[in-house]
Known about the structure:
Blueprint: H1 8-13, H2 28-31, H3 35-52, H4 56-66, H5 75-95, H6 101-114, H7 119-132, H8 136-147, H9 156-185, H10 194-215, H11 222-234, H12 238-250, H13 258-270, H14 275-288, H15 295-304, H16 308-321, H17 331-346, H18 350-357, H19 364-368, H20 371-380, H21 382-396, H22 401-410, H23 415-428, H24 430-433
Helix pairs in contact: 3-4, 3-5, 4-5, 5-6, 6-7, 7-8, 7-9, 8-9, 9-10, 9-11, 10-11, 11-12, 12-13, 13-14, 14-15, 15-16, 16-17, 17-21, 20-21, 20-22, 21-22, 21-23
Amino acid sequence: MDQQFPSRSSFASAYKCASVSKYDHLNLKDRKQSGFQRTAKICLRQIRKAVLHHDWQTAAELMTNYFQILEDTSPRNQRSACKAIWRMGTTILQHHPNSSMDNIESFTRKMKIIGVKFYLKACLEHAIHLLCNGKMDEAYRELSVAETWRYGEKSANQQEVLKLIQGYRALLDYYTWAKKNRVVHDMANDAVDSSTAQEMHKYFRQASIGLRDVVQSPGVWDPFILGYVNLLDFYDGFEEALKVLNDYAYDSRFPLNPNAHVYLYEFLKRHDSSPKKLMKVLRVLYHLTPSHELMLEFNSLLLKSRKSCHHKEALGVLFCLLDFPTWKEDCNTWKCLLKQVKKAVAQGYSDWIKEQWEPRQDWWPAFHFSKYRAHKDFEENNTNAYRKAQIAGILMGKGCKYFITIYQLGRKVQKAKLKKMRQYVKDHSLLQLSGC
C-alpha cells in the first residue's frame, strides 16, 4: 500500500471482475451516485470479501486503489472512507505475510495526514501495535507525542481516546518502575543511591497519576487497575488500594467483570485477610463465573468452615464445576466430589446430593456417564474411572451403564476393590435411600 496511487481509470479497470449485473439491483439513491462513487462501493465490498477469506494480497491491491475515494469532495464520504481505510488497512498490514514495520509506519503516517479526527486513534493503535512487537521505547514516544498534540477543540470521542493514550503511557511508566524496582530489590540497601530512588519515585508519580485518572472512569481497565494497585500497595497504601479494588468490583458505574473479583480476592489473600472476607468475594465470582479455576479454592474455604450450610454450598460448587466441558476430565474435581458425597452420606445429608442431582439427571448421564465415556476414562486413568463409577452408582444405582462397564473392565484386576465399591453403591445409592 506504500506506492503511488493509480489514476481513476486504473481504479475502475481493477473491477472488470465486477460484472455489469452488480448494478441491476441498486436502489434509487445508488443510481444517483456518480460512477466513481459506485465503483468505490464495489471496491470496498471486494476488500471486505478478500479480508473475510484471508486473501491478503488481493485485499492489499484493492486497498491501494480504494485510497482514491479520498478525492471525493463530500466531507461525509471522506469521513466514512477514512474509517474504512484505517480499519481494513490495519488488518491487512497486520496479517499480510510480506508486511514489514516500515509498511505500517508509512501507512500510519498517511492516516495521520488524512484527517485530524483520526490522528489520536492512529497514534494509539500504532502504539499498541508497537507494544505487541516488543518495541516499548518507540511506543512510549508515540504516546507522548500524541498526548501533547493540539488541534482546535477536541470532541468527546477524542477526549476519550486521549484519556486512553494517557493511560497507556502511564502503564508504560509503571512497567519501567517495576523493572527498576526488581533491580533495586536485588541490590543491597547501601548500594541504592539517592538518584536511583528519585528516578523510581518520578516513574511512580507519573504512573500513579495517569493510571488513577483512567480507572476512575467507568469501563474495563484490568491491566491499568493491576498496575495502579501494585503501586499503591508498594508504598503502603493498603486502604487506598483496597478501595480502588472494591469500587472496581462492586460500584454499579463499572460493568460486571469477573476479573475485578479475582483481583480483589488475590489482594486480600496476599494480605492474609480472614476466610470470611475471602469467601464473600469468591461467592460473588461463583455467581458470575461458576467455572472459574478459583472455585476449587472456594470449595476448600467452605469446607474449613464449621457451618453445615457451607459444606452444602461446597458440594454445589463441585457439581457446578463439572457442568462445564473444561472440567469434565479434571481428576482432582472428581476426587473431591467423591470424598464430599461420601461425607454427606455418612452424616445423613443425602438430600444435599439429591438436590444437586435432580436438575442434572436428564443430561449428566450422556455428558459424563455414557458407555463410551467409561471405556475412554478407564483407558486413560482407571483410578479416576473408579471414582466416577462410584459417583455414578450413588446417583443412579448399580444398574447404570457407566458403573456396569467400569465394574466389568476392572473386576479382573481389582476384584476385592470393585466388590467393596459395588456393595457401597448398593447400600447408599439415591435409589436405595429413596426406597425405589
